[in-house]
Design a protein that fits this description.
The protein has ten helices and 14 strands. By secondary structure, it is α/β, with parallel strands linked by helices. It has two domains: about 170 residues, P-loop containing nucleotide triphosphate hydrolases (Rossmann fold); about 190 residues, RecF/RecN/SMC, N-terminal domain (Glutathione S-transferase Yfyf (Class Pi), Chain A, domain 2, Up-down Bundle), CATH 1.20.1050. Strands 2-1-4-5-6-7 form a six-stranded antiparallel β-sheet, covered by helices on one side. A five-stranded parallel β-sheet has the order 8-12-13-3-14, with helices on both faces. Helix 4 packs across helix 5. The longest helix is centred in the middle third of the chain and has 41 residues. It starts with a strand and ends with a strand. The chain binds adenosine-5'-triphosphate (ATP) and magnesium ion.
């Protein structure tokens, strides 16, 4: 897909912005705090209806305004679509070709993006919650039904946890009430687990290949799902459902004691191994960064496999951190097929010979 234009209103430090001349490679150059990240963040927000930097929409609205609008026309295989997202304290409103969408899940996925930013290092280095968020965002982007199950799961989880908290020390009649929540928790939970496992299996294939290329064959990257019950490889829904229900009944006493749900997709994790060693523990800074990059590049291929089109690639401040070999590798792999937006503080920090056809935007 190809973003033809972008317009912003009251978005972060942009009161009004209208751009109509994007190319395949777009360099966004400017000093610190001028609005480079804000510009590509807006594209990310248009794709996923939320920012990669914050969960609070209020932060995206210009100081002193009550709403923000991000709009773009995107050229896709089957024609051009106009996308518009309005953020305000009343919530989000999304339009496709001028038609308001009743459900945001219908809108998400109209534009597909892969963003690689410095904080993505945390996917490898950070807490399990960051890795779960990575999985949820990426799967949700190509499978709206995943977001549905995730929302339902979170709702049930909240109610189940409330019950567990209130029931501390309560009698055995608690059991029947818990069982009602157990069924709903497991129903949505196994869908989430299954889709995550499928996603990781497919991502593994591409990530291993790409990582090998970036490291000149020196490193073998392996991804694995770390479930809170059952085997990592199990993908059969009926089996998962049974295992989840058994686990919930085994954990019952402990859960009542601790007042929370202790197993399920909200406790699962994702692990990365480089040549057999866990990257989070043993990886160098460079290895961790390269792992995060391989993941993101693998996602590009995965989205292509999934929807038959390449997403756009947003590279925030990361190109200049790669050595020239890796920069070249990155640009050449995707130059002709993936529309790319790259931010940097100066053009000299990037291997400019590879970017002779790039369109340059100076942000001030
Ligand atoms: P750097 O090179 O440091 O990464 P940048 O060009 O990427 O800089 P941005 O992150 O895009 O900078 O931010 C630019 C400016 O936007 C900052 O000065 C910030 O204070 C401002 N800003 C952030 N949120 C809002 C908002 N809601 N309203 C107005 N301005 C905002
Ligand atoms: Mg920035």
């Amino acid at each position: 897909m190809f973003v033809k234009n972008l317009s912003l209103q009251h978005y972060r430090n942009y009161d009004k912005l209208s751009l109509n001349s994007f190319g395949n490679i777009n360099l966004i150059i400017g000093r610190n705090a001028q609005g480079k990240t804000n510009m590509i963040e807006a594209l990310f927000v248009l794709a996923l209806t939320k920012s990669h930097r914050t969960g609070k929409d209020k932060e995206l609205i210009s100081f002193g305004s009550d709403h923000a609008i991000v709009a773009a026309e995107v050229e896709k295989k089957y024609g051009t679509v106009g996308l518009e997202l309005k953020l305000s304290s009343q919530g989000k409103k999304a339009k496709i070709n001028g038609l308001e969408q009743r459900k945001l899940s219908n809108f998400i996925g109209s534009l597909n993006v892969v963003m690689f930013a410095p904080e993505d290092l945390e996917i490898v280095k950070g807490t399990p919650g960051i890795r779960r968020r990575f999985l949820d965002m990426e799967i949700g982007q190509v499978q709206p039904s995943y977001l549905f199950h995730l929302q339902q799961y979170q709702k049930v989880l909240l109610q189940r946890n409330n019950l567990l908290k209130q029931s501390w020390g309560a009698g055995p009649e608690m059991g029947t009430m818990l069982e009602i929540w157990n069924e709903q928790l497991a129903e949505h939970g196994v869908k989430i687990i299954k889709k995550r496992k499928q996603f990781i299996r497919k991502l593994q294939k591409w990530a291993e290949h790409i990582h090998e290329g970036i490291t000149r064959g020196e490193e073998k990257l392996k991804l694995s799902y770390l479930p809170s019950f059952g085997e990592a490889e199990e993908e059969d829904e009926a089996v998962l459902l049974e295992q989840f229900m058994i686990k919930l009944s085994q954990m019952k006493d402990q859960e009542i004691r601790r007042g929370m749900t202790l197993s399920g997709p909200h406790r699962d994790d994702l692990a990365f191994h480089i040549n057999g060693n866990e990257a989070q523990v043993y990886g160098s800074q460079g290895q961790q960064r390269t792992t995060a990059l391989s993941l993101k590049l693998a996602e590009i291929e995965l989205i292509h496999e999934e929807i038959g089109e390449y997403p756009i690639l947003l590279l925030d401040d990361v190109l200049s951190e790669l050595d020239p070999y890796r920069q070249t590798q990155l640009i050449e792999t995707f130059q002709s097929k993936v529309q790319t937006f790259i931010t940097a503080t100066g053009i000299e920090s990037i291997n400019a010979s590879r970017l002779k056809d790039a369109i340059i935007f100076h942000v001030q």
